[in-house]
Specification:
327 residues; alpha/beta; Quinone Oxidoreductase, Chain A, domain 1; Rossmann fold; 2 domains; 7-stranded mixed sheet; 6-stranded parallel sheet; 10 helices; 15 strands; 29% helix; globular
């Protein structure tokens, strides 16, 4: 038996409860992991509360991230005792995820936990930091360098935004953070933001082209914010789009792309090839200031995760929520 959050839906309604689960209830997979830490992401908040139909089968254990130790393995790359980490691959949506003390998974979804990280540190980073790193790799791939000018980070107070600021700043970029929470200015400055702008300057309908300002953009917001970011990106700059906090729509024109040669790079953090995942985590080990992790993240117990979910969706929790599944 092990503890986990189980989401169910039947004639009596939709509910998420913390309960004791039998090992024989675990789904199919060739690696069983004793989970040490998971996280509470925006998608997990939607799953737990039922605010959006992200769960595709029931019952479901939420949790799109996990880090822990291999307990048993029929996969050639892993053996009992190996430290592993997972981001994405539909866990917590179509396959049981990390908000439980055990997970049974397809070993192809795992990568070895880099030796620089503890399991708790890896989950403080989680999908948010991993996505931020994938976004930076896209900027670098398209030749965006610190000497070309400012990089805009939207949704700056969220997990992706927080890590994007910290990483870009350490890499030498001048970072401008967009946020709607003026109370968080000191936090964003501590992460490395050079300037902070009000998200209202980007979130309303704008012009097809605006004054050139950004050498690059990391956007986790979408909708009008993404459209305006593209409109004000410099010639041959790159916009990495990795989120939809404002909306899934993209009310833009082709003008920035055909008149300025702007590149819009989509960031998929769910199904990256293993080599790309390993590269991103190795870069995180090298380029992230670990001293910032306590500033960006805070830890809760598994028993607190259900109550924390609606507060996360309401924007009442800053940065990353790490879940100790063993308390």
């Amino acid at each position: 038996m092990f503890k986990g959050i189980l989401i169910d839906k039947d004639d009596s309604g939709y509910r998420a409860t913390l309960q004791e689960i039998n090992d024989d209830q675990l789904p199919e997979g060739n690696v069983t992991v004793r989970v040490a830490y998971s996280t509470l992401n925006f998608k997990d908040g939607l799953a737990i509360t039922g605010s959006s139909p992200v769960v595709r089968k029931f019952p479901m254990v939420p949790g799109i991230d996990l880090a822990g130790t291999v307990e048993t393995s029929d996969h050639p790359d892993y053996k009992a005792g190996d430290q592993v980490v997972l981001n994405g691959w539909g866990v917590g949506e179509g396959h049981w995820g990390g908000l439980a003390q055990k997970a049974r998974l397809n070993g192809d979804w795992l990568i070895p936990l880099p030796k620089e990280f503890t399991a708790a540190q890896a989950m403080a980073i989680g999908t948010a930091g991993y996505t931020a790193m994938l976004s930076i790799l896209a900027l670098e791939h398209n030749g965006v360098t610190p000497d070309q000018g400012e990089v805009l980070v939207t949704g700056a107070n969220g997990g992706v935004g927080s890590f994007a600021i910290a990483l870009l700043s350490k890499l030498g970029y001048r970072v401008v953070a967009s946020t709607g929470r003026t109370s968080e200015h000191d936090y964003l400055k501590q992460l490395g933001a050079s300037e902070i702008i009000d998200r209202a300057t980007l979130s309303a309908p704008g012009k097809p082209l605006a004054k050139e300002r950004w050498a690059g953009v990391i956007d986790s917001v979408g909708s009008h914010t993404l459209a305006n970011a593209c409109a004000s990106t410099k010639a041959n700059g790159t916009v990495a789009a990795c989120g939809l906090a404002q909306g899934m729509d993209f009310p833009a024109s082709v003008a920035p792309f055909i008149l300025r040669g702007v590149t819009l790079a989509g960031i998929n953090s769910v199904t990256q090839p293993k080599a790309r995942r390993v590269l991103a985590w190795n870069r995180l080990a090298k380029d992230l200031d670990f001293a910032l992790l306590p500033l960006i993240s805070h830890e809760i117990a598994l028993s607190e995760a259900i109550d924390a979910a609606p507060r996360l969706l309401a924007g009442q929790l800053r940065g990353r929520v790490v879940v100790d599944v063993n308390r």
